[in-house]
Amino acid sequence: MRRSVTVAAETVPGGLTPASRAGIGFPVSTIPLHPEGDRAFCVGDLDYEVPPELIAQEPATRREDARMLVLDRAADSLVDAGVADLPSWLRPGDLLVLNDTKVLPAKLLGRKPTGAWVEGLFLAELRAGLWRVMWRGSRRLRTGERLTLGDGRATDVSLTLRERCGPGEWLTEVDPPCPAEELLNKVGQTPLPPYIHRATSGSGQEASDRDRYQTVFARRPGAVAAPTAGLHLTEGLLAQAKARQADVAYVTLHVGIGTFRPLRVERLDEHVMHTEWFDLPPPTASAVAACRDRGSRVVAVGTTCVRVLEATACPDDRRLVTAQTGGTALFIRPPFRFGAVDALLTNFHWPRSTLLALVMAFAGVERVQRAYEHAIAHRYRLFSFGDAMFIC
Questions:
Q1: Greatest Cα pair distance in the chain
Q2: Does the structure show a pLDDT above 80 at 218?
Q3: Which single residue of 25, 81, 236, 317 has CA 20 to 30 Å from 266?
Q4: CA–CA distance, 21 with 24 (Å, rounded to integer)
Q5: pLDDT of the residue at 259
Q6: Element (H, E) at 88
Q7: Is residue 18 scored above 80 in pLDDT?
Q8: Is residue 15 within 8 Å of residue 372, measured between CB atoms?
Q9: Which residues have a Cβ under 8 Å from the Cβ of 131 and sit 6 or more positions away?
Q10: For residue 268, what pLDDT is reported?
């Protein structure tokens, strides 16, 4: 059920530090916070306090049971709703764009000769038998050190650390060589974000995590983190969307380790964005063109889809996209001007993250700050297994 709400002007405990709010609640102001030529948007604008109890440790019982906060830009309002209501927020002719990447079981356990365990995250297979891996406690590891892979299920596979190749990252030789996906499916674990804690790594919990930290439409393996907005959708919801004459198209963006890395600069224009592999196939480019021909909206499910769509926008008409495959390092932050995306389904994001910067660029800094204050005050669940926002 939809419910329009107004946010009072007082400071919300645990929320973002608001800008001047005298006389301002909802409806949301339509005046841009940082127009062209104003001060540079800073990382500090992305700060807010995270109530630990709101960090979702488990997904909703059913995917569609998650709550959904709607930020309606045209109506300048917030609406408390649920993901199950999403089809009712779509219009006939809308195009839902989904990321069909599949999360690899990329979390590794390596045992040192001393018997101590080292946790790693598979990042890439460079060639047969040579991986790029991020190892926790990497400073204590040494070139040439050998680890036994697995938790007792694959003691015949050893890993040799050949050389450092980045912060915490090692070129790691696998012996005997084995295709990465095949081996990870045998001994890898679900690479949950570090803020999701597990008291046990038992098979039942791992099976549940492997199912729920994956979208129902995942089909192209390669990600080490989930496109979390898509976790809420079910075949039933997609069928309802189609019944409302909405269309569905797919892109692929393999979410990389950069999604976990906080911003370490004070000016966002100093940040070097990580590169992620993507594919926007010809049928999706055609679907976007058809959507424009009928005067409808492109609705991105997740920030990963936003990056792909905006990275492939046509220079002469940014409402259209071109079919492309490659890598994108596009960093979307205020005052980015969107062309390919008209609405966005997304989760609530970590402070000082590039994802939150993207959302603020799309909806406006003050609008998003107030929306997050409202979400925290009304006990929305945060981050990967948390609730959703629909920005339209």
A1: 68
A2: yes
A3: 25
A4: 5
A5: 74
A6: helix 86-89
A7: no
A8: yes
A9: 122, 123, 124, 125, 171, 172, 173, 174, 180
A10: 82
176-206: per-residue pLDDT in tens? 999 999 999 999 999 999 999 987 656 789 9
Per-residue pLDDT at 38 exceeds 70: no
Q: What is the mean pLDDT of residues 48-59?
A: 98
Average pLDDT, the chain: 88
- And the tokens for 19? 């800008």
Q: What is the pLDDT of residue 167?
A: 86
Can you list the pairs that 50-55 forms with residues at least 24 positions away whose Cβ atoms lie under 8 Å? Answer: 50/14, 50/350, 50/351, 50/382, 51/14, 51/376, 54/376, 54/379, 54/380, 54/381, 54/382, 54/386, 55/195, 55/196, 55/381, 55/382, 55/383, 55/386
Relative orientation angle of helices 303-311 and 354-363, to the nearest 10 degrees? 70
Whole-number CA gyration radius for the chain: 22
And the tokens for 344? 């966005």
- pLDDT higher than threshold 60 for residue 30: no
Half-sphere exposure (CA, 13 Å, Cβ side) for 298? 31
Tokens of residue 296, six digits: 């409808």
Domains delineated in the chain: 3-103+215-391 (3.40.1780.10), 107-188 (2.40.10.240)
- Tokens 């609730």 correspond to 387
Q: Quote the tokens at residue 94.
A: 């809308």
The pTM is what? 0.88
Count of Cβ atoms closer than 10 Å to residue 81 Cβ: 19
Q: Are 153 and 182 in contact, with CB atoms under 8 Å apart?
A: no
Structure tokens that stand for 238 in this block: 């997609």
The pLDDT confidence band at residue 265, using thresholds 50, 70 and 90, is confident
